Amino acid sequence: VSGYRQTGFAHELTGARASLAAAGIALRAEVQAFALPPACENVMSLALREAVTNIVRHAGATECRLSLALEEGVIALRIADNGARLVSGAPLRHGNGLTGMQERIAALGGRLALRAGRGLALELTLPLGAAA
Question: Are 12 and 49 in contact (CB under 8 A)?
Fold first, then answer.
C-alpha cells in the first residue's frame, strides 16, 4: 500500500483490518499501488470506513474481500462480505452511511453499485481525474 498518505487510504485500511479482526472477520485485501488524487482518496477512505462499520455491526459475516485497482483510467473499490443478513431477501435499507457514500461518489462523477445476496457487495468507481 505504499504511495498512500498515512492519514489517507492506507490509514483506513489499517483501521479496517483491526476492526474486522476484532470482530472475528477475515480480510482478504488486494490493493494496487497507484497515486490517488486527494479528493478521490478522501471519498474512497470514507467509503471503506463506512462499509467496514456496516459489516462489523450488521452483516454477521466471517469474511470480507476488498480490492482497489486502477482499471482503464477508472478507480475501482470493491468491498464484499459473506454475511447472512441479506439471505432472507429482506430489502436493503439505505441508511445515512450508504446515502452519504452515494452522494460523495456522485459529486465526483462516480458510481456506487450494490449487490445483495449472500452478503453485500459494493462497487465504487471514480474517474482517475475526478477533482484532482
Answer: yes
